[in-house]
Every structure is written in C-alpha cells, then in structure tokens.
Amino acid sequence: MIQEGHGMVRGRPDSKRTHCVSVRLNAEELARWQGARQKTERKELGAWVRAVVEESLNGRPGVPGDVPRVPAINETAYAQLVQAAEDLRELLHLAKEQGALPAGTDATLAQLGNAALQVRGLPAAPESAARQPR
Q1: How many helices (H) and strands (E) does the chain have?
Q2: CB 3 within 8 A of CB 22
Q3: How crowded is residue 93: how many other Cβ atoms within 10 Å of its Cβ?
Q4: Under 8 Å CB-to-CB from 110, ≥6 apart: which residues?
Q5: pTM for the complete prediction?
Q6: What residues have CB less than 8 Å from 51, skipping those under 6 apart?
Q7: How far apart are CA 129 and CA 113, in angstroms?
Q8: CA of 18: how far to CAs of 8, 77, 120, in Å?
Q9: What pLDDT, in 10s, does the model give residues 53-90?
C-alpha cells in the first residue's frame, strides 16, 4: 500500500519523502527482519528496509541495510603509520632538546607520508621522490 502525505516527512530539503509504503509481515518475518536490522546501526525498521532496497538496486556490497562505513584499515599500513608517528614524536622531542632536527628526519617524514598513502590504498612514493627536499 502506498500513501501520500501521511506521517513524518524526512529526507533532504530538495527531495522530501512524501510517500508511505506499508508491508504486512507475519511474526516470523518480522522477527527475521528485526534480527537483521539489529546487526546494523539502523535504529528504525523503515530506514533499514529503505537501505536494503536501495543497496540491492544500486549493487552496493556490505551488510544489507547497515550504515556505510570506511573500509577496514590495512593492518600492515596501520602498523607502519603508528611506528612512523612514534618516530616523529621522538624526532620532535630531540629537536626541542638540541635546537635542530636530528639526522634521519627526512626519512621519518617520508615513512610517515608513505604510511598515510598506504592506509588510503594509494601507492607509496618512490624512494628518490620521498627524500627530495621541499
């Protein structure tokens, strides 16, 4: 059943949702739908149903009806990024103590930059380009 102009109206200002779609379910179907919705971060069953239908129409991967998420970070790239951040913290500490940047600063900055690129799924900069002065 499709109704127009009833109940809450949500959506974007340029695309108000004005149609209501009603679906009858038996107890088992409702329990299955609620169980699937609870595995996502959707609070409302209607929002979950809309997301599942839209995702199936648009061919999006993932858990049906879940809130879109950033893909999991590559563990190796993450570990490199953490190590580079620790090295940078140590270099900054030494710079404050000595009044100058210690040897290896350029390599550490290049490592940090490459780790950030890898986390985003981009290729690392070539070794020679990473060491060029800015």
Answers
A1: 5, 4
A2: yes
A3: 11
A4: 125, 130, 131
A5: 0.40
A6: 40, 42, 64, 65, 66
A7: 11
A8: 8, 46, 39
A9: 888 777 766 566 666 555 566 677 777 778 888 888 88
Angle subtended at Cα 51 by Cα 46 and Cα 53, rounded to the nearest 5 degrees: 95
User: Residue 72: which residues within 8 A CB-CB, separation 6 or more?
Assistant: none
Separation in Å, CA 103 to CA 52, 86, 87, 93, 100 = 55, 16, 12, 13, 10
Distance, CA of 112 to CA of 12 (rounded, Å)? 39
- Among 15, 52, 58, residue whose Cα is nearest residue 34: 52
Chain-centroid distance, C-alpha 7 = 32
Convert the pLDDT of each residue in 10-45 to its tens digit: 566 777 888 888 999 999 999 999 999 998 888 899
